[in-house]
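In keeping with the milestone schedule agreed at the kick-off meeting, the structural modelling team has produced records for the first pair of proteins. Each record is given below as a sequence line and a structure-token line. The laboratory manager (R.T.) confirmed that both were archived under the project's standard naming scheme.
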Amino acid sequence: MFMLKRMRPVPFTQVFFAGLLFSAASLNAVSAQADSAANRPTPMGKALDGSMIIQFAPNIFPNGQGLPSGIGLAQNGAGLYQAQCASCHGKKGEGGTAQELIGGDGPLSAPDADKTIRTYWPFATTLFDTIARSMPPAAPGHLSADALYSLCAYLLAENGLWGWEQPMGPKELAAIVMPNHNGFIRKFP
């Protein structure tokens, strides 16, 4: 036979204060753990100094402001492209594991539109900026300004937008009017 033991009621204030004491003890334990974790060095990353921030976050504008000085030729860019870019973008820029870069003439409204440098990018300076910031993926930011201008000259020449013999520098790159320059709605002037 089971017997139920009658429990006596506990006043609310006793339950409330017991809960507060438990919460305060828990918070102190969590706080102590956080303090010890904060004082331990973390194995991830390192602090960036000012020069590194500028290297990885230059302000390059569509009008060419912010482009570094330098000069490049499409012929030099061809070798750089094969060594640094072809494994992902294809030997002739046709695409591979990464985006197609060369070719494309149709409108972007077509269902099978080619979003290449020629058809999709409104500013040539974006090409320099993208390569400088993020290419090649395993070592972004290591290419010199001359190498970057050479790659831009090569890719633009392959897209029929630049001459093979023409030297390219910041003024020349900024002066190129891309075929789809007016194909975008501008939110800001």
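The second protein of the pair:
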Amino acid sequence: MKQNRKSKFIGFMYLIRLNNCLMGVFSVILSAFIATRDPDYIKLLLSIITVFFVFAGGNIVNDLFDIETDRVNKPSRPLISMDFNLKHMFVLVFVFFIAGIILSAFISTAAFVIALFSALLLFLYSWSFKRLPFIGNLTISFLTAILFIFGAEAGGDFTKGIFPAVFSFFMNLGREITKDIEDVDGDEYAGMKTLPIIIGKTKSFFLAVVVFFILIAITFVPYFNGTYNKWYFFITVFGVDIVLIVLLSIFFIFDDIRTKRFVNNYIKYDMIIGLIAIMMGAT
């Protein structure tokens, strides 16, 4: 029984994507400290809890609406491989969303609007938007980007979150496209209409390359206009831009799911390096 409870707890951590929730928390803390070196710590704590709840709810509802696809793509997902009550999980989604929205109201009116809009958009994404070619990709990229505006708002100056939001948007948009290429077999089986299914894997890959190269071009702007310092420049060039080019080359050369999944995971980690560069550059 103890082992079963432990396994279910671990499964629940996978279900809410604990690593994604923590990355969201990290992004909020980073953008708050970019906005100010002396944030209101009560508001910062509220923003952290809000993001954790909204992210957790969004990740659960995503799996709930994606069960059939995951039976092919990722059969080890907790909702498939473990005995979770689906009705209870739907209730938990709304508990997480409502708790996050209520807490955000104590930060500011703008934070409340962002949290409410994000929760609604996460639900719509999982229910419908993710099945629409490119609309789903844009939606999740926008949701990730607005996280930095939210964090900077908690820090007292939402404008300081604009560049991190733009960086995040393009990084996630490119990754969303490559993830669709990775998942094309399962998505096609489930009747989804993602970009690789509509226009093919090759054209989708080159669209992702265009998005990533727009991102690479944008990364130079804050250094040359004097917004960020030399540390940002060096970390971004060697830790983000060059790494992205190498990862895209690997993705193109090796046409197997394991390699593509490896690349997509490391693109996520490359985003963390970019955020560290922004933090270092803003000091």
